[in-house]
Specification:
Distance between the termini: 31 Å
Radius of gyration: 24 Å
CATH class of the largest domain: Alpha Beta
Mean pLDDT: 93
CATH topology of the largest domain: Rossmann fold
CATH architecture of the largest domain: 3-Layer(aba) Sandwich
Strand order of the largest sheet: 12-11-8-13-16-17-19-20
Number of helices: 15
Number of domains: 2
Oligomer: single chain
Strand content: 15-25%
Structural class: alpha/beta
Bound molecules: flavin mononucleotide
Largest sheet: 8 strands, mixed
Length: 398
């Protein structure tokens, strides 16, 4: 864990954050900005963490590139407190000191805990910078919270509690149990054009597939995410391939899986691929006609079944999703049928009313060894349960 301390009056609280990490047995690499070091000295962090507190990219005592070294060593980078100035530099991608360069080349999650006077936080420039960080999707912001700040005023700008910042960072410190695996994930709907302005699609948000890609990367996998048209930010460390139609997804998928499917250890097919496309999409906008209009649809290929049929042996692991309006035993039966007909290893079955659009879902994991009915949980938590199966599958085969 790298702990970066910037020049806020709340810098003294970073000592408590470091102590939380150390109590959990986590190695802490302290980094100070020049301003941060004016609030709490190197000796405090060096003494507490047992690691040299660094503040200088040009540190001649370090043989090599210090920012790259720290980024390689740290599974998570925490910036607490984060000044308005530091946030502005992160938002514009600056690398003008050790901390900013470290954040820019972090290989894992970055946690940022803003701390400043409420007027500084409310300023449009700060709000714009925070918005940029949010929409880039590369950092986790913890706080600020409403409370008393250094001069006694109350407002939104106080740093979140050290224990909350530490807990958020520790939750991101993941076991790298998928390291060495290459996982292909599909997500989102596909869009089938009817004419230049109209299309056939479905209500998939892409959140399930993006959660799987995010969690797989956090657990050390190399992830290729083949995504239908959704507005979600690409999770940190994930290679994204954008597609539109089922046929485009098919091409991207076969490319990602490689010759004889050897380029991937697992495929998780979370995309809601359209079953049909227009037989002859019109090049020009279809005109409104009086009376019924009919469009001739043809079936899209079943992308997962094609891969199931092409696979020889047990690798790559193939995971499908069954989104049905059925529930209970009927849903389990449909998932079992899908498991067999598509020749896959695991089917995640969920009811349409539980799964579409929201952040939460309820699912069953259906495999040859049985059915596990899971409690309602977030899509991120479900992603982890599914990836536990992927990790176990890898181990069982080795
Ligand atoms: C006493 C004092 C307290 C400060 N507290 C804060 C603060 O809480 N938040 C903040 O954004 N800036 C604060 N600043 C201003 C920053 O230290 C200043 O913007 C500095 O350039 C930040 O550098 P850094 O982000 O590289 O650490 C404070 C400055 C002083 C002198």
């Amino acid at each position: 864990m790298a702990l970066c301390v910037t020049g806020s009056i709340a810098a003294f609280k970073a000592v408590e954050i470091a102590r939380h990490f150390i109590q959990k047995g986590v190695r802490v690499l302290p980094v100070l900005t020049r301003s941060g070091a004016r609030f709490v000295g190197h000796a405090t962090f060096t003494g507490l963490c047992g690691e040299v507190a660094r503040d200088d990219m040009w540190d001649a005592s370090f043989p090599g590139e210090l920012h790259i070294h720290l980024a390689t060593e740290a599974d998570v980078v925490v910036v607490a407190p984060a000044t308005a100035d530091a946030i502005a530099r992160f938002a514009s991608g600056r690398a003008d000191d050790l901390m900013a360069a470290l954040v820019l080349c972090a290989r894992g999650p970055v946690v940022i805990a803003p701390a400043m006077h409420p007027r500084m936080y409310a300023h449009p420039a700060t709000q714009r910078n925070v918005g940029v960080l949010r929409s880039d999707g590369r950092v986790t912001l913890v706080g600020p919270v409403v409370g008393e700040v250094a001069n006694g005023e109350v407002g939104l700008g106080r740093m979140a509690e050290p224990s909350d910042i530490a807990a958020a960072a520790l939750s991101l410190l993941r076991p790298q149990d998928l390291a060495g695996l290459r996982i292909v994930v599909t997500a989102g709907p596909t869009v089938e054009d009817l004419d230049p302005v109209r299309y056939l699609s479905n209500r998939s948000s892409g959140r399930m597939g993006f959660a799987i890609a995010q969690q797989a990367a956090a657990r050390g996998a190399k992830v290729v995410l083949v995504a239908g048209p959704v507005e979600l930010a690409t999770p940190s460390g994930v290679e994204r391939v954008n597609v539109r139609s089922a046929m485009e997804m098919r091409n991207a998928l076969w490319q990602a899986m490689g010759p004889e499917l050897k380029a991937a250890d697992a495929l998780v097919m979370a995309a809601a691929v359209a079953d049909y496309r227009a037989a002859e999409p019109s090049d020009v906008k279809l005109k409104r006609v009086a009376g019924p209009q009919s469009i001739h649809f043809i079936a899209n290929p079943d992308l997962l079944a094609e891969l199931g049929a092409a696979r020889s042996g047990r690798s790559p692991m193939l995971v499908g999703f069954a989104l049905e309006t059925a529930t209970g035993d009927e849903l389990a039966r449909l998932a079992q049928a899908k498991l067999q007909s598509k020749k896959v290893d695991l089917v995640v079955a969920n009811g349409a009313s539980d799964a579409i659009g929201g952040d939460d879902t309820q699912a069953m994991l259906v495999s040859a060894s049985g059915i596990e009915t899971l409690a309602p949980m977030t899509k991120v938590a479900l992603a982890d349960r599914l990836l536990d199966r992927v990790a176990a599958y890898g181990k069982a085969g080795s």
